[in-house]
Amino acid sequence: MSESFPRLSARTRRFTLGVPRGFTISPDGGRVVFLRTRSGTDPVTCLWELDTDTHVERLVVDPRTLHGDEEDLPPEERARRERSREAAGGVVAYATDTDVTRACFALSGGLYVVDLATGQARKLETPGAVIDPRLSPGGRHVAYVTGGALHVQDLATGEDRALARPESETVTYGLAEFIAAEEMDRMRGYWWAPSGDALLVERADEAPVHTWHIADPANPDRPATAQRYPAAGTPNALTELYVLGLDGSRVAVPYAEEYLATAAWDTHALSIVTLTRDQKTMRLFTVDPATGASTLVREDTDPAWVDIVTGVPAHLDDGSLVWVANGDGGHRLFVGDRAVTPPTLQVRAVLDVDHDSVLFSASGDPTEIQLWTWDGHSLLPVSTRSGVFSGRMAGGVGVLTEQSLETEGVSTTVVRRDGMAVPIPSVAERPGLDLRVSIGRSGRRELATAVVLPSWHEQGSGKLPVLMDPYGGPHAQRVLNRRGAFLESQWFAEQGFAVVVADGRGTPGRGTAFERAVLGDLATPALEDQIDALQGVAEQYGDDLDLTKVAIRGWSFGGFLAALAVLRRPDVFHAAVAGAPVTDWRLYDTCYTERYLGHPDEQPEVYEKSSLFADAAKLDRPLLLIHGLADDNVVAAHTLRLSSALLAAGRQHNVLPLSGVTHMTPQEVVAENLLLLQVDFLKKALGVAS
């Protein structure tokens, strides 16, 4: 390679640039619209279209020709990209009409509509910077948010009017509030009626939410940024729903629960899904758009918490409800009132409903994510090879994405009605690493574990220092059967480590009992399972692992787990790098934290058990804390307060503050050097020669 892995990984946004994504299939299956950058190092995302009959791919929109300044983004759009972990620029999101003849998108705050047949794009006049534009189903109007107001513009006449304006500076119409975007995977705040004459719109008022201040000490001339942050135990934003008609009508849709999980409006029903604050009760309602009256369709309860699953509610052509709920220990697909999947198949998401067929992703083995369909009569596997799959389906045509340990990158294929496969090429860069990953089960709980060895290491030739490389917390996995999951781990292995990646209790894909084992304690089970996995791997690779030199690194929850490891189990872990760690769960947000630990006023002892502060005096191992000072998700106060506690206890440690860096660390130089600095720290801490 002409570039080092750290530099190339940083330039390519961890090899995501150049990968096709954001697929939309036309109703007749004849065209597929998608997003992709023009190369693996180009951060500007373009809009493309593939003709499934001719196999011809066409560039529809290149933002460079529209003179979009990628740095000129409104604050709301920057926040939306942070919540969605969007690392690229350009046309990063778009929406089409039902027939997929037009698309709209925001670029540098401007509103654009493009004719997909001709590629002719035009910029529309708007009174301010645009967020989340969406075309009406018939394509006559485009709705968007600017300045917290929801606007609708008639594409034929150019008439632009605000259907709802914020009553104060803390109010927005049509935008998902922080908790919905960060913790519920709901990135939108309004939904068009199928008829195109009305919208369901969220009104969010952040007035009750406490104000925090995110400062940049490296630039003392700049004022701190005020941010409303709903920390555990504190008030959330007040959310309300209204049906707003293009004729100026306004109908309230009342609901009693704390959270609006999602909404959907199709030809069968206007549906809303609500969740109580303790997240033990989820309710699905249908709404009469004329009156706002709601009818309860189903209620799901769980003594721990009810999971939010993307893609539902939805309906088959005959009106049957498509839903996902827990049953008999598994996440199951329901059609109507009947569970159509076994409890051993853990449904991850509903990806599409095409007339009477449901496309969904699910795991039998937690290290695999496979595609399945329910065709109204039986379950059919769509993906048959080992790996991680996703996809879309419309008009009898499917788009499948595939990742595996055997192949590099992401493979995308369009499957036509006649079964012919048409590839959509990826132009992503190749990492240039010789991957040496073994996935299996380890420890008493048979945890999904990956062992990553240096490509040059001969087993039994000598013992290597060990690097545990987990996320280890709820709602996310590290051990999946795809090469992209282990690129950084392999690079660390090439520096002379045996890297161990383990998914402990709380991680998804293995059933509800396994996930709910962290209820009331985010620390003990997670740490126990990392040790369990390490001991299990040591039994299998006894001649290759040096257990007198064990380090651990992680980011976010993984950072919490890394710091926890050296504080509570220094007999096992000899050094740690904790990136953006949660150190006190009272400082993290309501929805995520209270799901697992409850309300801090009601269970303060639970929060103490999962806090790092009481363990500060125990530190006698090298610890490097890394934190972006602009992080608005896990704020830098987590690291700074832990550092203060360590200092008060007289415990030596290292802190690396990153000026202007958020939770994602997207800056190229920062991302590159963070890897190099971590290796240097870990080698010195373990006494390993460079």
Structural description of this entry:
With 690 residues, the protein is of the alpha+beta class. Among the domains are: 22-165, 6 Propeller (Neuraminidase), CATH 2.120.10.30; 437-686, Alpha/Beta hydrolase fold, catalytic domain (Rossmann fold). It has an eight-stranded mixed beta sheet. Strand 37 and strand 38 form a beta hairpin. The radius of gyration is 25 Å and the shape is globular. InterPro entries: AB_hydrolase_fold, Peptidase_S9_cat, Peptidase_S9B_N, Serine_Prot_S9B/DPPIV, WD40. Residues 488-687 form the Peptidase S9 prolyl oligopeptidase catalytic domain. Residues 65-86 are annotated as: Disordered. Pfam families: DPPIV_N, PD40, Peptidase_S9. Residues 107-372 form the Dipeptidylpeptidase IV N-terminal domain.
CATH class of the domain at 437-686 equals Alpha Beta
Number of strands: 44
Poorly predicted spans:
none
CATH architecture of the domain at 437-686: 3-Layer(aba) Sandwich
